[in-house]
Automatic annotation (TrEMBL), chain A:
Residue stretches of biased makeup (Low complexity): 32-64
Annotated region (Disordered), positions in chain: 24-67
SUPFAM superfamilies, per the entry: Ribosomal protein S10
Pfam families: Ribosomal_S10
Any one GO CC term of the record: ribosome
GO terms under biological process: translation
GO molecular function: structural constituent of ribosome
Chain segments annotated as coiled-coil in the UniProt record: none
Protein family membership: Belongs to the universal ribosomal protein uS10 family.
Keyword Metal-binding: no
Source organism per UniProt: Penicillium diatomitis
Protein name: Small ribosomal subunit protein uS10m
TrEMBL record, chain B:
Gene Ontology terms describing biological process: translation
Gene Ontology cellular-component annotations: mitochondrial small ribosomal subunit
Family designation: Belongs to the universal ribosomal protein uS14 family.
Designated name of the protein: 37S ribosomal protein MRP2
Amino acid sequence: MFLGTTRSLVGASKRLWTPISIRSLSTPNQPSAPSTKTSTTAPQIKAEPTPTSATSPTSATPMPVKESAAFEKPPVKEWLVELWRSLTTLFNVLVLIIFLFLEYSRSDRLADLEKNARLPRSVQALYLRPLRRKAEHGLPVCDLQLRSYSAENLEFFADFAIRAAYYLKLPVSGPVPLPRITQRWTVIRSNFVHKKSKENFERITLRRLIQIKDGHPEAVQAWLAFLRKHAFYGVGMKANVWEHESLDAGKALDASLPEIQKTVGPHLAQFGQREDNKRPGTIFDALDNARYAEPKNL
Amino acid sequence: MSKAASMFHPKRLDLSGFVNTRVIRDHNKRNAFAQMEPERQALRYIIRNTSLPQRTRAQAQLQLSQMHCYTRPTQIKNRCVASGTARSVFRDFRLNRFQFRMQALAGELPGVKKASW
């Protein structure tokens, strides 16, 4: 009901407004005011409104003079409006011409590009399946497991990792979709009592396995560092790296033993002690200490 | 022998999130346990070591039993970080079941969705 009334009011205002504006714009010289003055002289003049007829009644009474003076101004305004309108149309036409010209040239250029140019190969490759190196021996070197809660992020990053491996010349297999980890929780809906009304929540962890085969350990490390540098949001990584030695690794180990002992020595001296609890002597010295013999005041 | 728990109070409150008397108390217990753990382990070692003289072992037993109760690991109880509640706190999120539900519904726990199967 309220809406109906408002709508009708708005309509009325429109009906009131529009005729006045149109008249004032379309017929600048037509005097609309003479309705007052014509009533004094003659009602016929209203039918044929001319500047002369408008001016003649003005001399008859002092009041209409002011009114006519007031109506002398509109013609200037109207003239300006006309000028402005023509200018805008001219401007619009110009803009249209320029736009058409530009459009034409752009389409021309695009056609030219399609004919004669192409995207760079590296960009083109993004629209195709990732390239892969062939494994010569098929010896697994690194297992990278990617985990995420969202499939899109995971797929995107797996794709990224495989492309990166290609450019590092690492043969790669995968991504292998590993079984999903589903965790479920059932909680009571309310914060207090109402034990029978419950709600279930779950978290599904998606996993992908990417395996690197017979790559150089340094290249593998570079690949892992690159992936870590460009880590994607919401995707976790876990890598198992295997290094392979030659058969006489034992001899090499024996040879390197003294050096290793030297480096490990200071660490082994602290064996059984915490880093922040450095004290001179062994743990037994501490146990024999009077502090331990006394009863505790704690 | 002073048994005041105030000896384990930190000078300044080193807690963030939801703070409560009970939360602070639990935090103090954790600190006390962390501080005295080597001593407890040493005493337990002495008590269990059959090669040591009986007298030493008995003394160690006495000392261990006389340590402050705050230094025991059994005093520590997981509390909800959002509300301080001690009951039905999920270890995965350190949240109470109700806080977990509210946060899961608000989408604040990554990957957690309403399940239907």
